[in-house]
Amino acid sequence: MDKEEEAPQIPRRTRRSSTSSWASTSNDVSSVKVNSLEPQTINDLLVGGEPVSLDDLLSNFPGRNSQIREIVHLLGPLNTPMLPLFVYGGASTGKTSIILQLFRHLNRPLVYSSCRTCYNPRILFESILNQLHLHRRSAANGYSNAKRCERPSDFVNFLREALTNAINNLKEKSEKLMSSKTMRGGIGNMIYLVFDNFQLVREWDKSSTILPLLFNLYDMLKMPEVGLIFISNSSPDTFYSNMGYVEPIPVYFPDYVEADIRKILLRNQANPKLYSSFLDVSLRPFFRITRQINELSTAFKPLYEKYCEPLSDKSIVPNEDMKRRLFSHIMLHVSSSLNEIFKVSSLPLSKVESSKETTQKGTPRKLEHCEEVAKLDFHMSTSAKYLLISAFLASRNPATLDASLFDSKGGSDNRKRKRKPSEKVPEKKESLEEELLMKGPGSFPLERLLAIFQCIVSVADDPSDEEEQNGFGLGVEGACGDLMSDVLLQLSSLCNAKFIFKGRSCPIEGSTRYRSSISEDLALKVARSLKFPLSSYLYKRT
Amino acid sequence: MEMKRENHKGKALNLLRSRVCDPKFAFKALYNSPESNYSKLKFMISSSVTEACNNSILLLGPRGSGKISVLELVIRDLLDEYPDSISVIRLSGLLHGDDISAFKEIARQLCMEHQLLFSKSASFDDNSQFMVAMLKECGLAHKTVIFVLDEFDLFAQGKQRLLYSLLDAMQSVTSQAVVVGISCRLDADQLLEKRVRSRFSHRKLLFMPPSMEDSQSLLVHMLTIPVDSSFPRDYAIEFNRKVQNIVEDKRFKETFSNYLNFDSSVKHLLKFLFCAISHMDLKTGFLSLENFKTAFSSINRQPKLECLRNSSILELYILVCMKRLEVKEKSFCNFNSVMKEYKSIHDSFQTSDYYDRNVCLRAFEHLINRELICFADNRGHSLSVEYRPVKLLISSAELNQGLRAYHSCPAILQKLMDREG
């Protein structure tokens, strides 16, 4: 009946209540020493690095002056309790780095965990407990965690225990410091838990219980020595919860204004005068599109090189006349690169430049252009390319049209194929095109994909055997069974690469449906690399 | 000498911060009258302790109105009064909402309380039998077990096995327990099953947020530092005088009532005080009206308008396009339809901001990240962003206001919005 009866059978899993805190502290310390070769100390909870002064911090983060001061005020002097903070603001506004640098400046222990890397409650709980237990996962302990904990109830118990230990540790330490009177101030008795990327918790499976739990953690722990800081991309009002919570104190990081961005971009420039005149020209138009510093700085890098092109000496201080000259030089590039701002190119700049003229226009390029146009910047096997094209066609064209596009002879009858689509009534086509634009690519069953695949492969192989000679041969003619297994493999790798989406199985037909997600540009590019006349197969383009 | 003065200022700040962070301080001040919930609750629990009977009470009220804190105060007093005849088991619906972990936690706390060995691997049945047995034992030893069930409504989900076995065990003469349920759902007792409800005594205590006058006197109480040996006498007097001055200021009263109109619960008030105290200038060492104003503006935020202020011009264009589509009552809106609208605006007004599709798509994604728009359904994961239906998360009034407040908003956007009315 009583607990004691069953206890002796499983002595290792029982735990005596820790009524006296000093005893548990000493236990903890000894276990840490056993666990890791180089024992971590409470100092490992500090951010580390050279100490920074507040002035340095303020100058390191232009435009964040008031936010830094506000957080410093809210954190308060050493050993003062704090209500939970909710730091929010858009992407790349310096939330995380400011918090971390601030703790480096303040030299106080913090437990940092990002909800992006700790992507489910269990990992989050265990990461926090590991840090608090000064536990480092290593080969010696088999990369195990300090505590195994999945349920929120266990987490709160473990957390309370670990925090009590750590805080007692800190208190002992600061008492020693007080007696020895070292010059540098102690690290205090407070422990701060930082939850970064907190907005991601909303998408977790158990978000409806985890969110209120974390928001109510401060009230639940009832430990004044614990400070909580939530860092989130989205504002507090987007954290809906049907049970409510006492909202933490909001600290808002607005996006940088133009002047701040200027200051930030000017930092670490070799020739600030020149760069500043460059920014005079280019910042304003770009700023109309995006206000995120990371995107702006990547966009400006190639543009600045362009700007400097006419100059022989890049360390020159520009005068008015030169500025004018440079201005007229760069103006063309600014307007064109505005539309390229988010393009990440793996090709050298010059090549992109040459292809830009053709890519500007939305119309599909003619096949004649294909030689000089940029090629695919990734490798793909020929059969995968054909498969991709057939998936694209299957998504694009209505299924009823397949028979007329690819007849039994393998679509070699060009005349018939070309005529059929153009016979359609224009209005109907327009509405279809509209539908395509709205609904997106259609889905198709596997059978249809394979049928189209076989048709286009046989078409492509008919006129010339170039492919085979190059060693990229598919061996279609030879072994059909081989091809099938190969194709299914290719299909799954295309699905994994997200070129083709694999949908849920259709409730009526019972088979899985697929959907191609590539853009027309990419499809044309792929087709061009195979010298495949894709545009003549597309239903809407005649 | 100077150093010492600084010390006092820091100490004052520290004292105020600790007061604000400890809700018990506030509620103790608030509930010292004999008519208060504190006295009622204390009477109820202490009578069941002294008379050795069973009892169940619900504490209901909005979040941050001090249900837990008052209960904690009562429990602390009772533990002082009857140290050997009370043991407290604390559960929270957030943590122990499922029956298995609830029983486990009860067993754990009972073991801890009575210096028994707790077995982690004990089964659900073991734990529930253990609880019933322990209740009996405690009853025989004239020890009252107080069960505090925070977030009571969450215990009422599912089969309510915990509540049933707890209340059922209390029906027997030998046991001696008090169940205190805490919930912010006023209909918490309606959630109970019939078999549970019939075993529950329907005592309810309602916690209401304090009136404006009470809040104000609470504020003064919180901010007044003791005039005794802990602070230099003249400093403390000056400090308290300044606080009094601030409270009597007309502008402060306005800010304060604005703030409390929004939410008058004590926790909300404490948040405000915390912000104000944090901004206290340590050079002067006194609170100022400015501190409270800063606190007010930093807590009362308008996230949607802030988001709008952060948007780039192109993002504003997209928002206006979407709003136009909404007004036209297009049932279905995705990136492509927005782009069509965007193009038509460009065609008819020849705006200078006409960008490539890719650029717009990225701006569109920014808007999704800012949560000014969101996907209308969760189904279309197999579609790429351009095709997924989206909806606006901002009203036209907000958009209008945001556009007007925007620093360099193109005139055409405002015109377009005005036309839509």
TrEMBL record, chain A:
Compartments where found: Nucleus
UniProt keywords, alphabetically: ATP-binding, DNA replication, Nucleotide-binding, Nucleus
The Orc1-like AAA ATPase domain, residue ranges: 60-217
Gene3D superfamilies documented for this protein: P-loop containing nucleotide triphosphate hydrolases
Domain Origin recognition complex subunit 5 C-terminal: 380-538
Low complexity compositional bias, start-end: 17-28
Biological process, per Gene Ontology: DNA replication initiation
One annotated GO molecular function: DNA replication origin binding
Domain ORC5 lid: 275-328
Similarity field: Belongs to the ORC5 family.
UniProt-recorded name of the protein: Origin of replication complex subunit 5-like
Originating organism: Arachis duranensis (Wild peanut)
Organism phylogeny: Eukaryota, Viridiplantae, Streptophyta, Embryophyta, Tracheophyta
Gene: LOC107483598
TrEMBL record, chain B:
Annotated ranges, domain Origin recognition complex subunit 4 C-terminal: 219-402
InterPro entries, per database record: ATPase_AAA_core, ORC4, ORC4_C, P-loop_NTPase
Location(s), subcellular: Nucleus
Major place of residence: nucleus
Gene3D superfamilies attached to this UniProt entry: P-loop containing nucleotide triphosphate hydrolases
GO cellular component: nuclear origin of replication recognition complex
Keywords recorded for this protein, A-Z: ATP-binding, DNA replication, DNA-binding, Nucleotide-binding, Nucleus
Segments forming domain ATPase AAA-type core: 57-203
GO molecular function: ATP binding; ATP hydrolysis activity; DNA replication origin binding
Described function: Component of the origin recognition complex (ORC) that binds origins of replication. DNA-binding is ATP-dependent. The specific DNA sequences that define origins of replication have not been identified yet. ORC is required to assemble the pre-replication complex necessary to initiate DNA replication.
Family (UniProt): Belongs to the ORC4 family.
Protein name: Origin of replication complex subunit 4
